[in-house]
Design a protein that fits this description.
about 950 residues; mainly alpha; Rossmann fold; 47 helices; WH-like_DNA-bd_sf; Tscrpt_reg_LuxR_C; nucleotide-binding; ATP-binding; AAA family ATPase
C-alpha cells in the first residue's frame, strides 16, 4: 500500500516526487494525470499538492461542467486568493504582469480590450514567474476537460514556456471526454514534453483490502472477485458499490454475489439516488439546487432556488456530507462530477431549463456577477426578458474587458436571441461582430452584415463595411469584399474623404487576392508622395509603397513613403494594410524594420486580437528570413501559420504562410519537410500574390530537389498569376528561372534573364537584391563571371541579408578554386561557411564544406566568432543587456521567456569571447 492509504500508486508517486524535485530546481514541467472517470486521478493530484508541502506554493482550481463558459474561471480560482492583499498584488502585477489585473480584478468597463488577449496571456505568464520567484510553484487543476477556453488557452501558453521555470503544472484529464474545446485541449496535452501518468485499475488484492476495511470483515474470494469484475478495479465505482453494500448490511460472502451483480451496473447513479432517497426531502431539493447552480453554490442561493430556509439548507448539506455526496468545504460542491451528474440527470430537461431560469433570477437578486447570471441563461431558451438581455450584454462587456472574447461572443449571441431592446440591438450586433472578427472567422461576416443592415449612421456604416470587406478578403471571399467596399463608397458623402480613401485601399488590395482588375492599381500612384496625415490616406499610402516597389521604384523613395505611413498606421489597426509598408522595408533591408516590428508586436499583444497576431508572426518571420535568422524565422513562421489556421484564414492566405516556411526549410536543407508543407495546402486558381509566393517557393524547392524543369514550370505559372508585378523584389523568381534555365542547358536564355534582373535590382538598389543578381549572373557566366562575383561580395559586405552574403562568398570562393586559385579561395569560403552556420542554413553550409575540401582546406569545426556571428535575435538581446537590462526585463521587452534570453546570452558570450555583461560594451564597439 502506498503512503496515506493510496493503494497501488507507488510508481505514480515516484514520478510525482521526481517532477516536484525538478520544479524546485527550475526544471518546470507539465504533469498530466489521465484516465477514465473514477480511476483516482484527483486522488493523485491531491497527493501532488500534499507532497509539495511547505517548500512550495500550491495553487489549485477545478474545472466544472456548468462553468465551462465562465471566462477565465479557472485562472481566477488559481490566483484571486493570492492577490487579495493589495500590496502583494501591486508587487506581483508589475511590468509585463500588469495585464493580469484585467482578469483578476473587477472589470474597468473598458470594452475595447478585444481579442483573444495575448497581453492577458503574457501578463498571467509573468504573474506565474513572479510568484515562482518568491517560492517554487505548483499549479494543480482538476478536470482539465471542463476548463473554460480562456483559461485553457492560458494553460497552453504557459505549458510551452515552463522550461527553466520553478513551476510544476499538474492537471487531471478524463480520457475520451471531448471537453469544452477538444482542439485546444489536444494542442495542450499532445505536446511531446508532457509527463503523462495513467493510473491503473486496482488489482483484486487491493479490492479485497478496501472491501475488508469498509464492510468490517474480509471478503470471501468469490465475493471479492465479483466486486473486482463488476467495477473493473475502478476506485470510485468500487467505493460507491461498497457504500451501497454497507448501507444494506450485505456480508461479503459468496452467497451475496448476486447482489453485487444487481447493483454494480449503475454503481454511481443507483447508489447516489438510493442515498438521496433515504434522506429528508429537503436534502434531495438542496442536492438538485447545487447540481443546477454548479460549484459556486452557497447556502443563500441554494435556499432561494430550493425553496428552503438557510437553516434547512445547512442541515441538508450536513446530511449530504455524511452520505458522502457533498464535500464538507464551502462553497457547496459534490464529491465527484459523476455524483453531480447522477443528481442532475434525474431532473427532466424541461425541469432543468426552468431551474436554470430560476437560478439566473436568484443570482441576479443576490447581485452575483454578470457572468454567473449569464452562464445560467445560456442553459435556457430565450424568454424575451429585458433584464436577461441586459445581464448577457453586461457579461459580454466584462468578458471583453478581461480579454476573454470567446465568452463575450457566447454572451452577446445569446443576448441577440433574447432579444435586446430595439434601440440598442444595432450596438449589440456591432460589438458582437467586431469581437468575432478579431478572434475567429466563424460567424463574423454574417454578424457584420447584419450590423451593417441595422446601422444608419454613414461614418459608422463605413467602419463596419471596412471590417466586413477585410473579413471577407481574409476568408476567401475577396470578390464579395470588393462589392461591399464599392457599395460603401457609393453611399458615402463626397466630403468624407478619409473613409473613401480607406475603402479605396481595400479595393486596391483586392487585386492581390485576384478579385479586382489590375487597372485599379493606378489609383494608388498619386499617393506615392502622400503625407499620411489621416488614417485613410495612410492606408492607401502603405499600399502605394508596396505597389511602387513592385513597379520598379527606387528602394529609398519607397521606404520613405512606407515609413511615413507607419507613423500614422498601426499594425493592430489594420493587419491587411500595414503589411504593405512592412514588406517594402523587409525587401529594402532597412534596419528600422526590427524596431518597428517590436512596436507592432507590443501593440498586437496589447490588442490581443488573433487576426493581428497571426499576421504579425508571419510577417515578422518573413523579416527574419530576409535577414538570414532562419532558426528564429522558422519559430515565428510556424506560430503564424498555426494562428492563421486557428483564426480561419482562407486557403489563399495559408499559401503565403506556407511559402515562407518552405523558403526557410529549403535553406536549412530540410527538403522532405518542405515538400510535406507544400502538399498540406491546395494551390487556389485565382491570380493572387499569395499563389505567386507559393509558386516561387515551389520553384525554389524543385530546384533544390534537382528538378529544373519543374522549377521552370512553377516560374511560368507564377509569372502568369502576377503579370502586373514588374519588380518582384520579395519573390525574385528571375533568380530561380535563370539558374533553372542554365541547368537544362538553355544558358543564353539564362544570361538574358539574369541580366534583365540585375538591371531591375539596380533600379531597386537594396544591397541584398543587387548582390544576389550579381551572384547569379556571375555564376552563369562561368569563367567570365569572376569580377561579377567579386562585386557581389563587395555589395553585400554591409548588407543585413547575411545568408545572401554567405552565398555570394561561397560562389566567389568556388569560382576562384575553379580558376586554379585554391589558396585565394579558402578565405571567402571559410567566411561563407561561418555565416551559413550562423544563419542555421545547413544545406548552404554543406555545399560550402564540399568546396573547402576541394580547395584543399579542412573546414574548421569551431563556430564563427565576433559580432558578425550574432543572429539578429541574439544581437537584440545583447544590445538590451549591454544597456543594463536584466534577463527578466529583456524577456518582458521581447515577449520571450527568461530561458530564451539565457540561451541567447550564453551563445552571444561564447561568440564574443566575453564572460559578463560588463564586457559587452567593448565587444560590440567594432560593429559600429
Amino acid at each position: 500500500m502506498s503512503p496515506d492509504g493510496l493503494l497501488e500508486r507507488d510508481d505514480e508517486l515516484a514520478v510525482v516526487d521526481e517532477l516536484l524535485a525538478g520544479a524546485a530546481a527550475s526544471e518546470g514541467r507539465f504533469l498530466l494525470i489521465e484516465g477514465p472517470a473514477g480511476i483516482g486521478k484527483s486522488r493523485v493530484l491531491a497527493e501532488v499538492r500534499a507532497r509539495a508541502g511547505r517548500r512550495m506554493t500550491v495553487l489549485a482550481a477545478r474545472g466544472g461542467e456548468l462553468e465551462g463558459s465562465f471566462p477565465f474561471g479557472v485562472v481566477r480560482q488559481l490566483f484571486e486568493g493570492v492577490l487579495a492583499d493589495p500590496e502583494r498584488a501591486a508587487r506581483l502585477c508589475t511590468g509585463a504582469a500588469a495585464p493580469a489585473r484585467d482578469v483578476l480584478e473587477a472589470p474597468t468597463g473598458n470594452t475595447q480590450a478585444g481579442g483573444a488577449s495575448f497581453a492577458v496571456l503574457h501578463g498571467l505568464y509573468w504573474l506565474v514567474l513572479n510568484l515562482a520567484e518568491e517560492e517554487p510553484l505548483v499549479l494543480a487543476i482538476d478536470d482539465l476537460h471542463w476548463v473554460d477556453r480562456p483559461s485553457l488557452r492560458f494553460l497552453a501558453y504557459l505549458a510551452r514556456r515552463l522550461d527553466g521555470a520553478p513551476v510544476l503544472l499538474a492537471a487531471t484529464l478524463r480520457s475520451a471526454e471531448p471537453g469544452v474545446d477538444p482542439v485546444l485541449l489536444a494542442e495542450l496535452v499532445q505536446d511531446p514534453a508532457v509527463a503523462s501518468l495513467r493510473p491503473r485499475p486496482l488489482s483484486e488484492d487491493a479490492v479485497g483490502a478496501l472491501l475488508a476495511e469498509r464492510l468490517g470483515e474480509p471478503g470471501e474470494p468469490a465475493f471479492v472477485e465479483a466486486c473486482h469484475r463488476a467495477t473493473g478495479g475502478n476506485p470510485l465505482l468500487l467505493r460507491q458499490l461498497l457504500g451501497a453494500l454497507a448501507a444494506d448490511r450485505i456480508r461479503p460472502v459468496e452467497a451475496q454475489t448476486g447482489v453485487v451483480r444487481e447493483i454494480a451496473p449503475r454503481a454511481v447513479s443507483r447508489t447516489v439516488l438510493l442515498r438521496l432517497g433515504r434522506l429528508d426531502p429537503s436534502a434531495a431539493a438542496a442536492a438538485r439546487a447545487v447540481a443546477v447552480l454548479g460549484d459556486g453554490a452557497t447556502p443563500r442561493t441554494v435556499s432561494s432556488l430550493a425553496g428552503l430556509t438557510e437553516d434547512e439548507v445547512i442541515d441538508a448539506s450536513r446530511a449530504l456530507v455524511r452520505a458522502e455526496l457533498l464535500t464538507p468545504e464551502m462553497p457547496l460542491r459534490f464529491v465527484h462530477p459523476l455524483v453531480r451528474d447522477a443528481v442532475y440527470q434525474e431532473v427532466t430537461p424541461a425541469e432543468r431549463e426552468q431551474l436554470h431560469a430560476r437560478a439566473a433570477a436568484v443570482l441576479r437578486d443576490v447581485e452575483a456577477g454578470p457572468e454567473q447570471v449569464a452562464n445560467q441563461l445560456l442553459l435556457t431558451p430565450p424568454a424575451g426578458e429585458a433584464w436577461a438581455a441586459d445581464a448577457l450584454i453586461r457579461a459580454g462587456h466584462d468578458a471583453i474587458a478581461r480579454g476573454a472574447p470567446d465568452g463575450a461572443v457566447a454572451y452577446l449571441r445569446r443576448a441577440l436571441a433574447e432579444p435586446p431592446p430595439p434601440d440598442i440591438r444595432a450596438d449589440v450586433l456591432r460589438e458582437l461582430a467586431f469581437t468575432e472578427a478579431q478572434t475567429t472567422a466563424t460567424g463574423a461576416a454574417e454578424h457584420l452584415r447584419r450590423a451593417l443592415e441595422a446601422t444608419e449612421d454613414a461614418p459608422t456604416r463605413a467602419e463596419i463595411a471596412q471590417a466586413l470587406a477585410r473579413t471577407l478578403i481574409f476568408t476567401g471571399e475577396a470578390r464579395a469584399g470588393l462589392e461591399v467596399a464599392h457599395a460603401a463608397m457609393a453611399e458615402l458623402p463626397a466630403d468624407d474623404r478619409d473613409a473613401l480613401l480607406g475603402l479605396r485601399a481595400l479595393e486596391v488590395t483586392c487585386v492581390h487576392f485576384g478579385a479586382a482588375d489590375p487597372e485599379v492599381l493606378q489609383t494608388s500612384e498619386p499617393f506615392r508622395h502622400a503625407a499620411g496625415d489621416t488614417r485613410g490616406e495612410a492606408m492607401l499610402g502603405a499600399i502605394a509603397a508596396m505597389l511602387w516597389a513592385h513597379d520598379g521604384g527606387p528602394a529609398d523613395d519607397c521606404c520613405a513613403l512606407a515609413l511615413r505611413m507607419l507613423t500614422r498606421l498601426r499594425h493592430a489597426d489594420d493587419p491587411l494594410i500595414s503589411v504593405g509598408a512592412f514588406y517594402v522595408l523587409h525587401c529594402a533591408e532597412r534596419d528600422e524594420v526590427l524596431d518597428l516590428w517590436e512596436t507592432a508586436r507590443a501593440d498586437a499583444h496589447r490588442s490581443g486580437a488573433l487576426v493581428e497576431n497571426a499576421s504579425m508572426h508571419s510577417w515578422y518571420g518573413h523579416a527574419l528570413l530576409r535577414r538570414g535568422d532562419l532558426a528564429q524565422a522558422r519559430i515565428e513562421l510556424e506560430l503564424g501559420f498555426d494562428q492563421v489556421t486557428q483564426w480561419g484564414y482562407s486557403e489563399t492566405v495559408r499559401l503565403i504562410a506556407t511559402a515562407w516556411l518552405v523558403n526557410a526549410l529549403v535553406a536549412q536543407g530540410e527538403l522532405d519537410a518542405a515538400e510535406q508543407r507544400m502538399r498540406a495546402v491546395t494551390l487556389t486558381p485565382e491570380p493572387s500574390v499569395p499563389s505567386f509566393a507559393f509558386l516561387y517557393a515551389r520553384a525554389e524547392l524543385s530546384l533544390a530537389q534537382g528538378d529544373a524543369e519543374a522549377a521552370l514550370e512553377a516560374c511560368d505559372e507564377g509569372e502568369r498569376r502576377a503579370s502586373w508585378i514588374v519588380a518582384p523584389v520579395g519573390f525574385p523568381w528571375p533568380v530561380i528561372r535563370a539558374l533553372a534555365l542554365d541547368r537544362v542547358g538553355r544558358t543564353d536564355e539564362a544570361l538574358a534573364v539574369a541580366r534583365g534582373w540585375l538591371e531591375v535590382a539596380r533600379g531597386w538598389g537594396a544591397p541584398g537584391t543587387v548582390g544576389t543578381a550579381l551572384r547569379v549572373l556571375g555564376t552563369i557566366e562561368r569563367e567570365d563571371g569572376l569580377d561579377r562575383l567579386r562585386d557581389a561580395v563587395e555589395v553585400l559586405e554591409g548588407s543585413s541579408a547575411r545568408l545572401e552574403r554567405a552565398r555570394a562568398l561561397a560562389a566567389y570562393g568556388a569560382a576562384l578554386r575553379r580558376a586554379r586559385q585554391p589558396t585565394e579561395a579558402r578565405e571567402p569560403l571559410r567566411r561563407a561557411l561561418d555565416l551559413a552556420v550562423a544563419c542555421d542554413a545547413a544545406a548552404v553550409a554543406e555545399d560550402i564544406r564540399t568546396e573547402l575540401h576541394a580547395a584543399g582546406a579542412r573546414p574548421r569545426t569551431d563556430a564563427l566568432s565576433g559580432v558578425e556571428a550574432l543572429t539578429p535575435s541574439e544581437r537584440r538581446v545583447v544590445d538590451l543587456a549591454a544597456a543594463g537590462q536584466a534577463n527578466r526585463e529583456i524577456a518582458q521587452t521581447l515577449f520571450v521567456t527568461p530561458k530564451t534570453v539565457e540561451v541567447h546570452l550564453t551563445n552571444a558570450y561564447r561568440k564574443l569571447g566575453v564572460k559578463s555583461r560588463r564586457e559587452l560594451g567593448d565587444a560590440l564597439v567594432p560593429s559600429a
